[in-house]
Design goal:
Elements lengths: L2 H28 L10 H12 L3 H6 L9 E5 L2 E6 L14
Antiparallel strand pairs: 1-2
Length: 97
């Protein structure tokens, strides 16, 4: 796939993921529900781009490892911070969002 095809694919993913986030995920966060999202590939990149407010050039260089946990703290639907230092082998671990 050439670079322009990849960019179109990312743009399509951005629109789809953005619309799904706005219509389905954000309303759950507004009422302070914890939401677990499992994603991969362009869907994951599009979601991280939206939540971290990344530019297209920043998302091109972003590497997300297999099984990597990415967590965001939210308050009434707004992303407050990206949580770091999450070790999935650490037990017990409680996340309060």
């Amino acid at each position: 796939m050439d670079r322009s095809s990849c960019q179109r694919s990312y743009a399509t993913g951005d629109r789809w993921v953005g619309a799904y986030y706005d219509s389905t995920i954000a309303p759950q966060l507004i009422v302070d529900r914890a939401v677990l999202i499992v994603a991969h590939g362009n869907s994951l990149l599009s979601l991280v781009k939206k939540l971290d407010h990344l530019t297209p050039s920043q998302i091109e260089t972003l590497e997300i490892g297999t099984g990597e946990i990415i967590a965001f703290e939210t308050s009434h639907g707004a992303v407050v911070a990206r949580l770091s230092g999450i070790d999935p082998t650490e037990r017990p671990r409680t996340f309060t969002l």
